[in-house]
Amino acid sequence: MKDTIIREVYRVLEDRRDNPIDSYTSNIMKDDKKRGEDKILEKVGEEAAEVIIASKNDENLVYESVDLIFHTLLLLVYKGIDIDDIFDEFARRQK
Question: Which BP terms does GO give this entry (predicted)?
Fold first, then answer.
């Protein structure tokens, strides 16, 4: 289960994009192109800052990192990036 959680989160985000419901992720992606992207980018920036603060304070680093990863995945789904492109890039860098 742990090995597949990123792929499962990604699939849910894609579903929320393609079949919107009344949820945070659907609503943020339903906004017109510029506003939706701006809101997601604001969250990525906010979460990145919170990861830095968590690391410096030695507290909540895992929690804040998951928030940052989640919003990065949300951005990638919003931009229509295939999850396999991410895994392929990791694999390419591993060589």
Answer: L-histidine biosynthetic process
Q: What is the pLDDT of residues 42-58, one digit of tens each?
A: 999 999 999 999 999 99
Residues for the chain: how many in total? 95
Pick the CATH number of 1-92 from 1.20.1600.10, 1.10.287.1080, 2.40.50.140, 3.40.50.1970: 1.10.287.1080
pTM of the predicted model as reported, rounded to 2 decimal places:
0.91
SS3 20: coil
Contacts of 95 (CB under 8 A, 6+ apart): none
Give the closest residue to 53 by CA, choosing from 64, 69, 68: 64
Amino acid at 78: Y
- Note whether 47 and 39 are within 8 A (CB): no
Task: Report the distance separating Cα 1 and Cα 27, nearest Å.
Answer: 28
**Six token digits for residue 71:** 């919003």
